[in-house]
Amino acid sequence: MSGLIQVVINGLMIGGVYALLAVGLTMIFGVMKIINFAQCEYLMLGMYLTYCLYNLFHMDASNNPYIFIIPVAVIMLIFGIVIYQIFIRPIVGRDMVSYILLTMGLSYVLQNAAQIIWTANPQSIDTAIKSKSLYFAGLDLSVPLAKLVAFVLAVAFVLMVSAFLKNTDMGRAMRATSEDAQIAALLGINTKQSYLLAFGLGSLFAGVAGVLLSPIYTVYPRIGTLFSTTIFAVVILGGLGSVAGALFGGLLIGIVENLVGTYLALDLAPVGVFVLFIFVMLLKPNGLFGVGGRKA
């Protein structure tokens, strides 16, 4: 039994980070009705920014990279706003194909730019937290400290997003824009500002996820592809545009991925995720928390 609990805990740990990545993606879709295929490249940039800041300030193994969450978040927010203003804003209102082609192209550009700047060699942060674990001798369980911190901070960010959307004027304006942009504009809501903020926050959350994953994974230009398929499955399974769905979907997929990888075969973990995905889509085509169009 302790082995099963250990696998579930490990799944929850990574599932929290999946949820944070998915929240950024689902926020952009919920407000703008576009799918950003470059979202996981923002994760890659967040990891590289963390790596660079860690080395710039000559951190040693006793330090951990989480102290860079705020600067990375600010940089990625600005980056997202710039990307929106230069590339996304000119095509707002066009068909979905335009967004798909643009964001897929942006994904390849960012990957190749990262390879030019940092080369294709994997880089890692030398921090002691990656080798530390919390042991519960009575339950015969151990929890990797880096994954636990990533889980706690990721869930905290997701809950803050939910509170922001429900309890602030700007959050309510974004929710109204996601329901019907034309009616929201007639009511005096600045929909363009909502679009800008949604895209910027989506970039910010991906960057923060990059900070949280930096002690766990080595970073290389194509690391985003390691997560992209899973994150899109999380978003659709939870319900496009649903923050609660992104959180629940991320945790559920993290658990399923670890159960299949542990008890069947590691290579079959993605298969298990998509068997679950297909099963949910057959029962609830709009996702677990989706009803028709968009539900937050």
Strand-helix topology:
Elements: H1 2-32, H2 39-56, H3 69-88, H4 96-118, E1 133-136, E2 141-144, H5 145-167, H6 169-179, H7 181-186, H8 191-213, H9 224-238, H10 243-263, H11 269-283
Antiparallel strand pairs: 1-2
Can you describe what's shown?
A two-stranded antiparallel sheet has the order 1-2. The protein has helices at residues 2-32, 39-56, 69-88, 96-118, 145-167, 169-179, 181-186, 191-213, 224-238, 243-263, 269-283, and strands at residues 133-136, 141-144. The mean pLDDT is 90. Helix 1 (2-32) runs antiparallel to helix 8 (191-213). It is globular, with a radius of gyration of 19 Å. It is built from 11 helices and 2 strands; from the N terminus they run H-H-H-H-E-E-H-H-H-H-H-H-H. It is mainly α and 296 residues long. A hairpin with a 4-residue loop joins strand 1 and strand 2. It has one domain.
